[in-house]
Write a structure and sequence with these properties.
This protein is an alpha/beta fold and about 300 residues long. It has two domains: about 220 residues, Spore Coat Polysaccharide Biosynthesis Protein SpsA, Chain A, CATH 3.90.550; about 70 residues. The protein is about 55% helix and about 15% strand. It contains eleven helices and eight strands. It has an eight-stranded mixed β-sheet, sandwiched between helices. Helix 9 runs antiparallel to helix 10. The longest helix has about 35 residues. The chain binds uridine-5'-diphosphate and magnesium ion (MG). The site of uridine-5'-diphosphate has 16 residues, from strand 1 and helix 3.
């Protein structure tokens, strides 16, 4: 059985559409499936819509978070609650075309264990968004040592890969990169990002920047090493200026240079502050991990009706 995981946050107008669209595609391909909706603490009628969908369609399984925990947590909860031999993760706004699921499933049948959806095109985006996304992916690709410029969260994973992901104890996960990091027999499938038909994207520019920093930190310690490099650079500067000052002192014209003093204070001060900030951020993340709080809390659950699926 294929489990399709659909994280949903304020998607009341997409639930029914996603249920039928994905259901139709998979039924016509003769693939047995379940749909795992994860309601990520939506503030609108998403949960009601999911309950309705579950009443009409025995394939629907659903989890409801006690509050909004973010898409990463929702995807992991869906994977943990899925019972299929393979699990696919896709957006429930239908920006990931359901037809691609069939292609992915066939590759899984051929023995691939991680099938990654890569974006052929990125859909419509603002110039600013495209550029910052480009920068983010360059950094994270270096950090994770995987080309991620076209990566997405649209993936199909074998049970073994899912179990490997779920066994990871860390709280700050970045699904897109972790699913490559675990290895296994991997292949990618291209897809075109569809237009969103209803509702709106949950990502503001601020949220994206925060998301980018969080994921870079969770995958790389390079920013901390930048602190060392900055320190070395300042040391070099100090040696040069130190020699110059000593020469001035011994040759008898040492009073001037007040501007240099002020500039040096400012430069070194800001380098120290930035460095402390970077180190502080890592410590904050360590603190979060050490606390070991659960990634999410589930308040309600709906199980799919296996007996009815078998009859139909
Ligand atoms: N999503 C979620 N929790 C959040 C934000 C988003 O579960 O806090 C879900 C959302 O319902 C959708 C998917 O993640 O199914 C992608 O979100 P969105 O379409 O807003 O992102 P975009 O496609 O613009 O990158
Ligand atoms: Mg979307």
């Amino acid at each position: 059985m294929l489990s399709v995981i659909l994280p949903a946050y304020n998607e009341e107008r997409m639930i029914a559409a996603a249920t039928t669209a994905v259901g139709q595609v998979l039924k016509s391909a003769g693939i047995s499936y379940e749909l795992v909706f994860v309601n990520d603490g939506s503030k609108d009628g998403t949960w009601n819509e999911i309950e309705k969908a579950a009443k009409n369609d025995p394939h629907v399984t659903a989890l409801c978070f006690s509050r909004n925990f973010g898409k990463e947590a929702a995807m992991l909860a869906g994977l943990a609650g899925a019972s299929g031999e393979c699990c696919a993760v896709m957006d429930c706004d239908l920006q990931h075309p359901p037809e691609t699921l069939i292609e992915m499933y066939r590759l899984w049948e051929q023995g691939y264990e991680v099938i990654e959806g890569v974006k052929r095109t990125r859909g419509r985006e603002s110039m600013m968004h495209r550029m910052s996304a480009g920068l983010f992916y360059r950094i994270i690709s270096k950090a994770a040592k995987i080309d991620m410029s076209r990566a997405s969260d649209f993936k199909l994973l074998d049970r073994r890969a899912v179990d490997a992901l779920l066994a990871m104890p860390e709280r700050n996960t970045f699904f897109r990169a972790l699913s490559s990091w675990i290895g296994f027999r991997t292949i990618s499938v291209e897809f075109d990002v569809q237009e969103r038909t209803e509702g709106e994207s949950k990502w503001s520019t601020g949220a994206l920047i925060k998301y980018a920093i969080k994921n870079i930190v969770s995958f790389s310690t390079v920013p901390m090493q930048c602190v060392t490099v900055a320190g070395l650079f300042v040391l070099l500067l100090a040696i040069v200026l130190g020699i110059q000052s000593l020469v001035n002192y011994f040759s008898g014209h040492a009073v001037e240079g007040f501007t240099t003093v002020i500039l040096l204070l400012l430069i070194i001060g800001s380098v120290i502050m930035i460095s402390l900030g970077i180190i502080g951020y890592y410590i904050a993340k360590i603190y979060e991990e050490v606390k070991g709080r659960p990634r999410y809390l589930i308040s309600r659950k709906i199980e799919c009706r296996k007996s009815e699926i078998e009859k139909s």
